[in-house]
Design a protein that fits this description.
Sodium/glucose cotransporter; sodium
Length: 571
């Protein structure tokens, strides 16, 4: 990166830290820290849920698929939009109406302490690996833009490679950020990252086309079938299964549930999820185009670094630093949201139950300590990612095979009056064993299910490996839970209690101060871009357009908030 890029990068990161520290002063109790006081706006929650799916892993994994396979990466991403719309209609409002403070509280209420213990540790192990992939991917992105001789420098002086050094550095930043700011900081910076990344990516596209010589050069330089919506690895059957898997994931995974809970009422929860869904239906074409473009520039490039190399190719000095900083901050927000959720679960549902007289102050302190421990584990696992099969394989496999097992029984309990603690235990154990056999048994030649004379079958399994994983991840837990449901003849005594939990009659108004901070933060960013435009030697017009766009967004947010304030004062 050029000096301008480095300056912008660190200014942006320091600004995010400043927001976190400021919001940390607003935390008065554990509800503020873990659930934003149930006063988040629907648009804030919806954009945050959208960005919860985003991290450097998005750019490394899905950007890598876009670079290799083309439009199929867009199709995969759009599946999440369909999933979110279903969740918005059937689940989001129900979560908020239950009146619980977390998904863990619901599990404890519905299935008991044993189920809560199993789910907590199962989910923590599963999501720690997901967070580790995001942190590893961030390091891959940052390594692509540092001088090539730095790798040996890090090894000689620190004892770690450049990637691992960056992992440790970023891990420390992420933990500190989460410790200070809580969920408010996560929500706010998610939206800030959304604005910056969207504007920056939109800038990459025309600048990249101009530099490569036009759209025709791009279209003529691509391999055949690059715009096909599916391919042999990612089939239509895979896409259908991917939609269902993400209905489970978005509808019941704890970080997303937290987004449904932190708003003021069930209608706001639905609106937030609909926003999330619409964004994932319309934005993937924009997000995935840069690595597809870079395929024409350098088809031999490292596919994991294709996205950041496309940005490096197209963006002028300063804007590249802003884009990389946004990728960094998006990853921070994604990991922060997960750390906040699981630190909250361990604090509320374990520490608080053991120490029943624990004060709010002590709960916040314990939550911060647990955040530190979980963050250290994520950093350690991130260093091990290459030895575990790589980012792409881990993300695709664990999402396909684990989401149904970890989430579906929870969602099932919201609608089924029969399923109980023993049923959940059987469902988890049987589903897990069956999926392990499918993953590691069927795909090993001469293994349990494959003989020497079935090499054609082996090749078929390898060819459609992704589809088999995704379909198995949907069918196995559904079939097992259905059989468990049929086998249970009596209604669970806890279902009626849950069904009668009502939303609080206390009317909460969404807090307006996050929006004000957002408007000011975007305005400051606009003036940073203005300074880049003033000192720029190339692409001056594009930078002034970016400045104007940010000013417009900031002004719209500020006056919208002022209008709401005036309306509330009149009422």
């Amino acid at each position: 990166m050029a000096l301008k890029d480095i300056i912008v990068f660190f200014l942006y990161i320091l600004g995010n830290v400043a927001i976190s520290v400021y919001l940390g002063r607003k935390i008065n109790n554990s509800t503020d820290y873990f659930a934003a006081g149930n006063q988040s706006s629907w648009w804030l929650s919806g954009l945050s849920a959208f960005m919860t799916m985003f991290s450097a892993g998005t750019f490394v994994v899905w950007g890598g698929i876009a670079f290799k396979a083309g439009f199929v990466a867009v199709t995969i991403s759009m599946c999440l939009g369909i999933s979110a719309l279903f969740v918005g209609h059937y689940l989001a409002g129900k979560w908020r109406k239950l009146g619980v403070s977390s998904a863990a509280e619901f599990i404890n209420f519905r299935y008991g302490k044993w189920a809560l213990n199993v789910y907590t540790w199962f989910n923590i192990l599963y999501r720690l690996l997901g967070m580790a992939v995001a942190l590893y991917s961030l390091a891959v992105v940052l390594e692509a833009i540092i001088p090539t001789n730095w790798n040996q420098l890090f090894i000689n002086h620190i004892g770690l490679s450049a990637v691992n050094t960056i992992i440790v550095f970023c891990g420390v930043i992420i933990v500190l950020y989460t410790i200070f700011g809580g969920l408010w900081a996560v929500l706010l910076t998610d939206v800030l990252q959304f604005v910056i990344l969207m504007v920056a990516v939109i800038s990459v596209i025309p600048l990249g086309f101009i530099k490569m010589g036009g759209v025709n050069v791009f279209l003529n330089g691509l391999p055949d079938h690059f715009f096909n919506p599916v391919n042999q690895e990612f089939t239509w059957v895979f896409m259908a299964a991917w939609v269902v898997i993400h209905m489970f994931k978005i509808g019941g995974e704890w970080a997303f549930v937290q987004r449904f809970i932190c708003v003021t009422n069930n209608k706001e929860a639905k609106k937030a999820t609909y926003l999330f869904g619409v964004l994932y239906l319309v934005s993937p074409v924009i997000w995935m185009l840069p690595p597809m473009m870079y395929r024409v520039v350098d088809s031999s490039a490292n596919f994991e670094q294709a996205y950041v190399l496309a940005c490096k190719y197209a963006l002028p000095e300063g804007l590249l630093g802003l884009m990389i900083a946004s990728m960094f901050a998006a990853t921070v927000s994604m990991i922060d949201s997960e750390l906040n959720v699981y630190a909250g679960v361990l604090t509320k549902d374990f520490y608080k139950r053991i120490f029943k007289e624990a004060s709010e102050k002590s709960q916040v302190l314990v939550g911060r300590l647990l955040t530190l421990i979980l963050g250290a584990l994520v950093t350690f696992l991130a260093i091990l990612i290459p030895k575990l099969g790589g980012a792409e394989d881990i993300v695709l496999s664990i999402t396909a095979l684990v989401a149904g097992v970890t989430v579906l029984p929870v969602i099932w309990g919201m609608f089924s009056s029969r399923i109980n603690e023993k049923g959940v235990f059987v469902a988890i154990m049987v589903s897990t064993v069956m999926l392990i056999l499918i993953k590691y048994g069927l795909l090993i030649q001469n293994g349990w299910f494959v003989s020497k004379n079935t090499s054609a079958f082996v090749e078929w399994l390898k060819t459609y490996n992704r589809t088999i994983e995704a379909v198995s991840g949907v069918i196995v837990p559904i079939v097992v839970l259905t059989l468990v449901e049929i086998s249970i003849k009596t209604q669970s005594p806890k279902f009626i209690k849950i069904d009668h939990v009502e939303e609080s009659n206390i009317k909460l108004e969404p807090s307006l101060f996050p929006g004000k901070i957002m408007a000011v933060a975007i305005m400051i960013l606009a003036f940073i871009v203005m300074m880049l435009a003033i000192t720029a030697e190339t692409n001056i017009v594009s930078q002034w357009i970016l400045f104007s766009t940010l000013i417009f967004i900031s002004v719209v947010i500020w006056f919208s908030i002022r209008r709401i304030e005036i309306k509330r004062n009149i009422e």
